[in-house]
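hey so i finally got around to running the thing on that chain from the lab meeting. sorry it took forever, my laptop kept dying and i had to restart like 3 times. anyway pasting the input first so we r on the same page abt which one it is
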Amino acid sequence: MKRFTGEISGNIFIDGAMRHGTLEILDEIRFSEETNKSAIKEGTLIPSFINAHTHIGDSFITNIPQGDIPEIVGPGGFKHRMLSSTEDSIIIEGMERSMRIMRETGTTAFMDFRESGLHGLELLERTLNYEVMPVALGRPDSRMADLGNIIDRSQGFAPSAISDEDFPRLMEMRQLSRAKKKLFGIHFSENSAENVDTLISLAPDFIVHSIASGDEDLDRIARANIPVVITPRSNIFYGKRPDYAKFLDHGIHLMLGTDNGMVSVPDMMQEMSFLYTYQRGIGPMSPEAIIRMSTESPYEFLVNHGIHPPKAYIFFPEVKLSPFEIVIRGGYFKHEIIFV
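ok and heres what got predicted. didnt touch it at all, straight out
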C-alpha cells in the first residue's frame, strides 16, 4: 500500500468534530486550524471506517432468508446449513466480494465473527488481501476440541450468544482469551432479553446488539463499561425496530457494524445514512456521533486492546462537506483512501 506524506487542507474530522484547517502528515500527524493554501490536497478528510461487526462468511448466500432470527442465524439455522453444504471456493468468493466492497467504500478494517470452528478461520486466511484488515474472532466447534488452535490463529473468541451456549463453555473461552490478551465478544439480547447478570460475570470486551435490553440492563452495561456494537440495517431486516438513541442516553460507548453479508452490504456509508434517517423520527442522532462510532471509536477500541489497524483517512477532493452531507450522501462524492 502506498503511504501519503504532506499536508491536506479543508474540512477535517478529528476528535469527534468537523474542524476547518490543515492536517500535516509527516513523521507525526498534526492538525492546525490555519489553512495552508500550498497544501498538496484540499477537500474533506475523515478517518477511514472500521466495520465493528461483520459475518462475511455468509456473503455468498443469494436466497432470501425465511423465518425469525433463531431460524435464520441461530445454531443449526438457515445460515449454518448453507455454510455446511457449500463448497469452500464459493464461500471464499463471497468473502472476497465483501472485502472489495469494504475497500471501495472506505473501510480499512473489520471485526468478523467467524463460524465453522477452525475451518472458518482457515477460509478467511485463504482470501485475497484487498488492503482491508480482518480482525478475526473465532468460534469453537460443538466439541470445543479446537479451542487452543482457534485462540492462537485469531484475535479472540466470538461465541453466538449466552442463550446458545453452556455457561462453563463461555467462561472457558473468556478465561482463555484473557490469558492470551485477546478479545472476547458476544451477541447479547438480539431477539429477546437475556440475563444481564450472566453477561456481567463474563465481562466481555464488547457485545453486539443488546436491542432487547431494558433500561436497568443498559444501566448495568454502561456501569460495567462494556461497549455495544449496533447493526441497524440487519436488525430492521429481521423485523426489529429499536431506538438506538437509548444507548447514548444511558452513556454507553457505541460502535457501528453491518452484520450478515447475506442481508446487508458491508458499506459503512450506507449504514451511517440508514441509521441517521431511521432515527430522525424516534430519537435523532447527530451526524458527528454517527461518524465517530464508525471511525474513531472502533479504532481506539482496537488499539486499546493491542490490535493496530492501518492508520488511514477517506479523502473527498475539492469539496468541503459537512458531517450531515457525509452521513446522508457521502458515497456519492468522489473519494479515496489515504494511508499514512
